[in-house]
Design brief:
mainly beta, 3-stranded antiparallel beta sheet, 3 strands
């Protein structure tokens, strides 16, 4: 069974201090069209994706 991995990106903004807003980056793996895993690794890079 093939797993597919995607990057989920969202923003978490602070309306009282916009300069303190943050981005959220998560690796999400799908298997059988359902979320299989959400990884909140400290760091990752594009090499974890196959072409």
């Amino acid at each position: 069974m093939e797993k597919k991995t995607f990057i989920f990106m969202a923003d978490q903004w602070n309306p009282k201090d916009l300069e303190d807003s943050r981005y959220i980056w998560l690796l999400v793996e799908f298997e059988k069209k359902l979320p299989a895993d959400v990884c909140s690794k400290i760091s990752f890079n594009i090499t974890c994706f196959k072409k």
